[in-house]
Structures are given as structure tokens and as C-alpha cells.
Design brief:
The protein is of the alpha/beta class. The chain is built from eight helices and seven strands, in the order E-H-E-H-E-H-E-H-E-H-E-H-H-H-E. Helix content is 45%, strand content 15%.
Length: 252
């Protein structure tokens, strides 16, 4: 086990699969105690079993991050089990696809409820504990779609742009307390959310050719960037958006 996160206590949301699960496992291998959540009770239990298999100290919560009480429950679980909170990884996310005139208000609210509101509520609840801990790191997962767009992605793109704006403001307001806040912008990553499309060879090949590296990203690729931002290796990095897209946006 390495030690870049030794003594840290991290909350990781959306940890039932994909980037969240890979991040929880990597932070644990680097010495962190992990509190993780997912909407799916089964997926959350599977991640917990994997963490226990590594010998990591961890605790699971199956909950909807868009609910107002979830943030408090996650922070309270971290304090009860591990006595402090030093790190927050806001990874839980969702999407939808509809042209603006066909996009229902319910779908708009659902996407923003998870992607922005959920992140805001956890940050707000975590900040006092991060300050008590003498500082800490917040990593918010956005998307390259925070900077560009495509047909049918009004809710998704606006929510991810909201993550970027929220991150920069938190970094500005709480840097004096030793709190760093950064965001990750993944490109085409092979995860549970994207598998259905990327398992189709004709779609996968198109996206692979769009990237400079000629491959899809893997959850572990993103977890390594999150580890950097969460660790003291990034001690002078705050308010930054890190694009991890295999060079997808170089020709945009």
C-alpha cells in the first residue's frame, strides 16, 4: 500500500461502479479511510465488499445524492466511523438526452438535482468539518461537456458547466482555510453509464478515432487524476479544471 492518502478520510459519491468505484479503491490503496455512496444498494454493497477485500477501512451508504438529507448522513458517517473528514470526491452523476423544446422540467430538475445540487449540498455540509481538520481537498467530477455541447444535452451540459462555476467559487471563498477545490473533465470513458453505446463497435471506433490517444478512457485513468487532485501532490492547485479526455478536444 502506498501512502499518498495516509491518514485521510474521504467521501466518494457514485462509487457503485465506474469512476467512483475505481476512485474509492485507489484512494483506499493509498491509505485513505473511505465513506462511499451509490443510489443502488446492490452496487454499494459490491464496492464495500471489494474495499473490505483490500483491508481498507470503509463504510457504505446506499442513498440518493439529490436528497437533502444524504449529505448530512454521509458526513455524519465519516465522523462516527473515522473521527474526521479531509476529502470529498463528488462523482455521482446522471444524464438525459432531449432537444430543448422536448425536454421536460422534471428531467431538467432530475439532472441538475444530482449533478449540481447534490454536489453543492455535500460541499456545504462538509466545509465546516474540512475546516476543523485544518484544510482538505474537494474534487468535483464534471465533464468536457462543461465547455462544449452537442444535440440533446442541454440539461447535462448546463449542469456540468454549473459544476465548474461552483468549484471555482468554493476554491476562492475557502482557500484561506486550506481547502482546495478542483474539478475533473472526463472525455469518453468506458463506464456503466456508457457501456451500452461503447460496446457497439461502430460507435466505439468513432470515439476512439476522435481522441489523440486513439482509445477510450478507463475509470482507472480518471481515478489517478482524482488521486493527484486529492493528495498533497496537488498542494498548490485549486480552482482548476483538469481535462482528461485523451486529446478529444484538441480539434474542437
Amino acid at each position: 500500500m502506498a501512502d499518498r492518502m495516509l491518514g485521510k478520510v474521504a467521501i466518494v459519491t457514485g462509487a457503485g461502479s465506474g469512476i467512483g468505484r475505481a476512485t474509492a479503491l485507489l484512494l483506499a490503496r493509498e491509505g485513505a479511510s473511505i465513506v462511499h455512496s451509490d443510489l443502488s444498494e446492490q452496487a454499494s454493497a459490491e464496492t464495500q465488499k471489494m474495499l473490505e477485500g483490500t483491508g481498507a477501512k470503509s463504510a457504505a451508504l446506499a442513498a440518493d445524492i439529490s436528497r437533502e438529507d444524504t449529505a448530512a448522513r454521509l458526513v455524519e458517517l465519516a465522523l462516527e466511523r473515522f473521527g474526521k473528514l479531509t476529502t470529498v470526491v463528488n462523482n455521482a452523476g446522471t444524464g438525459t438526452n432531449a432537444l430543448v423544446a422536448e425536454l421536460s422540467l422534471a428531467e431538467w430538475d432530475r439532472v441538475h438535482g444530482v449533478n449540481v445540487r447534490g454536489q453543492f449540498m455535500l460541499i456545504k455540509r462538509a466545509l465546516p468539518e474540512l475546516i476543523k481538520a485544518g484544510g482538505g481537498a474537494i474534487v468535483n467530477v464534471a465533464s468536457v461537456m462543461a465547455e462544449v455541447t452537442d444535440y440533446g444535452l442541454a440539461a447535462y451540459c448546463s449542469s456540468k458547466a454549473g459544476v465548474a462555476g461552483l468549484t471555482r467559487t468554493v476554491a476562492l471563498e475557502y482557500g484561506k482555510h486550506g481547502i482546495r477545490c478542483n474539478y475533473l473533465m472526463p472525455g469518453p470513458i468506458y463506464t456503466g453509464m456508457t457501456r451500452a453505446n461503447f460496446d457497439r463497435e461502430e460507435i466505439r471506433q468513432v470515439w476512439e478515432k476522435k481522441t489523440a490517444l486513439r482509445r477510450l478512457g478507463q475509470p482507472e485513468d480518471m481515478a489517478k487524476v482524482i488521486l493527484f487532485l486529492a493528495s498533497d501532490d496537488a498542494a498548490y492547485v485549486t480552482g482548476a479544471g483538469i481535462r482528461a479526455d485523451g486529446g478529444l478536444m484538441l480539434r474542437s
